Amino acid sequence: MADHLSGELTSVAVPKTALLACECGIEGCWPLLAAITFTEDSVVWDRFEQPFRRTRDYAGFGPFRFERERYDRALLELSEAIRDSCESHDFRDRQRPKVL
Ligand SMILES: [Zn+2]
Q1: For residue 53, how far is its CA from the centre of ligand 1 (angstroms)?
Q2: CA of 21 to the centre of ligand 1 (A)
Q3: Which CA distances in Å does 13 have to 62, 70, 99?
Q4: CA-CA distance, 57 to 54, in Å (whole number)?
Q5: I need a labelling partner for 39 at 20 to 30 A (CA). Which of 8, 21, 64, 87 fits?
Q6: What's the pLDDT score for residue 98?
Q7: pTM, whole model, 2 decimals?
Q8: pLDDT bracket for residue 25 (50, 70, 90)
Q9: How far apart are CA 36 and CA 4, in angstroms?
């Protein structure tokens, strides 16, 4: 997941990353795509797109700009939260994921 939000591309033809997906869990099923751009001190999500509804206009949505340091820290915490929940086989005692 951290690799994913570090800008791992969902498709090579379209250099964008899926930020949201359909509840069926199949990658590529109704994704919300965005370009994730890194600079030394910021991360920007922009150019949102729903590939199956090309006429939908996301011009007013974003760009969302994050401080690079906070973004990297949030991804680290997300990775740890995911790892912890995967390692816990006792779901009754499972801790709630940390709010980022
Ligand atoms: Zn689906």
Answers
A1: 15
A2: 7
A3: 23, 30, 34
A4: 8
A5: 21
A6: 58
A7: 0.71
A8: confident
A9: 10
> How many Cα atoms within 13 Å fall on the side-chain side of residue 90?
3
pLDDT of residue 67: 98
Ligand 1 centre and the CA of 28: distance in Å?
A: 8
pLDDT per residue as tens digits for the range 46-89: 999 998 998 999 999 999 999 999 999 999 999 999 888 877 65
| CA of residue 8 to ligand 1 center, whole Å | 21
- Position 11, amino acid: S
Collapsing DSSP states into helix, strand and coil, what is residue 43?
A: strand
Q: How far is the CA of 26 from the centre of ligand 1 (A)?
A: 6
C-alpha 27 to ligand 1 mean position (Å): 8
